[in-house]
Specification:
Layout: H1 3-13, E1 18-24, H2 33-43, E2 48-51, H3 62-73, H4 78-89, E3 97-101, H5 103-109, H6 111-121, E4 125-128, H7 137-145, E5 149-151, E6 153-154, H8 160-169, E7 174-177, H9 190-200, E8 208-211, H10 217-224, E9 229-232, H11 234-242, H12 250-268
Parallel strand pairs: 1-2, 1-9, 2-3, 3-4, 4-5, 6-7, 7-8, 8-9
Helix pairs in contact: 2-4, 2-12, 3-11, 4-6, 6-7, 10-12
């Protein structure tokens, strides 16, 4: 059983919902990331989502774009991100780690070679924003061969055929984008999300995580009432940006935020 599947199984038996924080690897400095990952787990994160810095993101709003720019100024590459995961695994062999990013760096590496390297480093899942399920056969085959889950996005505009197609190829969990637009916006409509998730569950038994627009414990709790996982990104990345000149305080500061999110989720479930 994969770490992601085991994590969701354990949480279900405890009647809990998953908290998945997102940070950009290497932001604001490469040396901060691994310690921050450990701090978030200690504070209540169940899975970790690491953004791979990329120069031309499509789904990310200005907050995460700026984080990518900060990391890229330190020349953080996909190879460096795998090194960070490898370092994290020295002390944590349980917490699932998901890489979120874009296809270009993986294409440049080669699917099979990347999958083998990612698995060796301790990566559990990959979410590639610009890889449509209709063209993902070779990609998912390489990831499956390395026992890496492939996570796909669905959105309010996804029709029944797209929900069915994603459900057929996805593994680990499905990531539902709560509104039309980029990360960091403030347009969360929980009732609309609930309706869409009800439709999606006709096609899949995988856990469903919801991201975009979740900014605090209150909204995290609202989403936890309807989803299996709550993904929080821009709110955390903005906090990192505000503390970028004092990187030594970032792990403790984000741990406080993670603990608040955890409490909001647990209170609502």
């Amino acid at each position: 059983m994969s770490r992601i599947k085991q994590c969701f199984s354990d949480l279900k038996s405890q009647r809990k919902k998953a908290l998945i924080p997102f940070i950009t690897a290497g932001d604001p400095q490469p040396g901060v990331t691994v310690g921050l990952m450990h701090a978030m787990v200690t504070a209540g994160a169940d899975l970790l989502e690491l953004g791979v810095p990329f120069s031309d993101p499509m789904a990310d709003g200005p907050v995460i774009q700026a984080a990518c720019e900060r990391a890229l100024r330190h020349h953080v590459t996909l190879h460096n991100v795998l090194d960070m995961v490898r370092d994290f695994r020295r002390d944590d062999i349980k917490t699932p780690v998901i890489l979120m990013g874009y296809l270009n760096p993986i294409e440049a590496w080669g699917y099979a070679a990347f999958a083998q390297a990612a698995a060796a480093a301790g990566v559990d899942g990959v979410l590639t924003v610009d890889m449509p399920p209709e063209e993902a056969g070779e990609f998912t085959a390489a990831m499956n061969a390395a026992a890496i889950d492939t996570i796909f996005l669905l959105a309010p505009t996804s029709d029944d055929s797209r929900m069915q197609r994603v459900s057929e190829v996805a593994s680990g969990f499905i990531y539902y984008v709560s509104f039309k637009g980029v990360t960091g916006a403030n347009r969360l409509d929980v009732s609309s999300v609930a309706t869409k998730l009800s439709e999606l569950r006709h096609y899949t038994k995988l856990p469903v995580g919801v991201g975009f627009g979740i900014r605090d414990a209150e909204t995290a709790g609202q989403v936890a009432g309807i989803a299996d996982a709550v993904v929080v990104g821009s709110a955390l990345v903005q906090q990192i940006a505000e503390l970028a000149e004092r990187p030594e305080v970032i792990p403790a500061a984000l741990a406080v935020t993670i603990a608040e999110l955890r409490a909001g989720i647990d209170k609502a479930v």
